[in-house]
Design a protein that fits this description.
It is built from 3 helices and no strands. It is mainly α. It is elongated, with a radius of gyration of 17 Å.
């Protein structure tokens, strides 16, 4: 986690460090539907999106 984020949250960035990770709904959809490229979900291509 960037030191500025830790500082804004009230933590001393010289003393603490962190990692941020997660499995968003887009990544789950990629696994479920076999989508190869995450950007496909955000291009607003009706032909692709109408499949879901």
């Amino acid at each position: 986690v960037h030191p500025n984020v830790l500082e804004a949250a009230g933590y001393n960035p010289d003393r603490y460090m962190g990692f941020a990770f997660g499995m968003g709904i887009e990544r789950i959809a990629m696994l479920k539907y076999g989508i190869d490229d995450l950007r496909s979900l955000f291009e607003n291509d009706y032909r692709m999106l109408e499949q879901f």
